[in-house]
Known about the structure:
This protein has helices spanning 3-16, 29-38, 44-57, 61-66, 69-75, 82-100, 108-112, 119-130, 139-147, 157-167, 173-187. The mean pLDDT is 95. It is elongated and about 55 Å long. It is built from 11 helices and no strands. The longest helix has 19 residues, at 82-100. By secondary structure, it is mainly α. It is 58% helix and 0% strand.
Amino acid sequence: MRKVDVEVIIDYFEELFPDADCELNHRNNLELLIAVMLSAQTTDQSVNKLTNTLFEKYHSAKDYANAPIEQLEQDIKSIGLYRNKAKNLKLMAIKLLEEFNGDVPSDHEALTSLPGVGRKTANVVQSVGFDIPAFAVDTHVERISKRLKFAKNTDSVLMVEKKVTKAIPRDKWNKAHHQFIFFGRYFCKAQNPNCKECKISDLCRKKNRI
């Protein structure tokens, strides 16, 4: 992408969403990690509703590690894939205790060594929890990146991440990640995007043909 086009896009995102930030409720990095793990194929609103009670019941990695799997399943049953998520929460907590003294690590490789933690989740935890420059690619980010020509429609999620982080200055990754999400979630939606009011539609691959 041309540097000038990237600047136009980032400036527009800043105009629309100057306060974009993580919408998953959390009070510490363990809660952040768990919330992101729970958010897979589930809305942030659903996760926040669930964690309002979950985080009052469980306060440490030890609490999750010691909880019977059947109980964890019941506690998170309101969201999708709850059985697999409960299993990963428990295994993740056990590994935190065994290898990281119960603390969430900041290192990307260490994070992705935890059960149920993939590249996207690790990037979010690094970015939001530790303020380490990282750029997580979820469905919103992937869609916006491809519509705005940061990446090709056939690119994998990893390739999208590589291309976007190459185009955007490193010191802008953390905030831009949230702005991409907000733009995709509230403005350039998968269905019925707000093309008519969009100031950067001339840079969009789809334009009004969506």
